[in-house]
Amino acid sequence: MGRKGEEGLRVKWVTIKKAAELTGYAEKEIRMRIFDGIWRRDVVWTWIGSHMMISLEAFERWVEGLIPPGPPIGLRHIKAVRARPRWADRKAIAEKYRLAREATHRSGIPHSVDHIVPLNSRVVCGLHVETNLRIVPSSDNSRKGNRWDPEWLTRSS
């Protein structure tokens, strides 16, 4: 089922809509296989920008039973990607997560990256951008949940 473009180039990744058209699966079925972990991330599907893309080559291998299922992806990850605008500095965001891992390693206390303005709350919805992230002990982040207090802006790191 190798797909070729007009110039004879193999197309590696296609949108979910195009994959549905080419494979006969409904878009909803494709999304279910991704969210349920049936299709492995970065093997059968990946994020390219803010779009979920499907590898036609890996899809073929999955149909043949050559690719085992992967872990289900979390809804939280999907919300974070949707809350990240195109102008966000992905390297700075990744650096915050690296620093949280480093803080955990250095102190022995689990640290996580907190969204100062929650991605989803009853009062306000923040963005997944570097200026809305801070490194805090995981216990503090769990206690905060998706609550919002404007004073946290002055305490952010």
SS element count, helices: 7
CA gyration radius, whole angstroms: 19 Å
DSSP strand tally = 5
Helix residue percentage: 25-40%
Mean pLDDT equals: 81
- Major beta sheet summary: 3 strands, antiparallel
Order of helices and strands: EHHEEHHHEEHH
What low-confidence regions span 5 or more consecutive residues with pLDDT below 50? 1-6
What is the general shape?
elongated
Q: What order do the helices and strands come in, and which of them pair?
A:
Elements: E1 13-15, H1 16-23, H2 27-35, E2 45-48, E3 51-55, H3 56-63, H4 75-82, H5 90-107, E4 111-115, E5 133-137, H6 138-144, H7 152-155
Antiparallel strand pairs: 1-3, 2-3, 4-5
Could you please describe the fold and organization of this structure?
Helices cover 39% and strands 14% of the residues. The chain is α+β, with helices and mostly antiparallel strands and 157 residues long. It folds into 2 domains: 1-73, no CATH class; 75-155, no CATH class. The protein has a 3-stranded antiparallel beta sheet. The protein has a two-stranded antiparallel ribbon with strand order 4-5. It is elongated, with a radius of gyration of 19 Å. The N and C termini lie far apart (51 Å). The model is unreliable at 1-6 (pLDDT under 50).
Structural descriptors:
alpha+beta, three-stranded antiparallel sheet, two-stranded antiparallel sheet, 39% helix, disordered N terminus
What's the gist of this structure?
The chain has helices at residues 16-23, 27-35, 56-63, 75-82, 90-107, 138-144, 152-155; strands at 13-15, 45-48, 51-55, 111-115, 133-137. With 157 residues, it is α+β, with helices and mostly antiparallel strands. It has 2 domains: 1-73, no CATH class; 75-155, no CATH class.
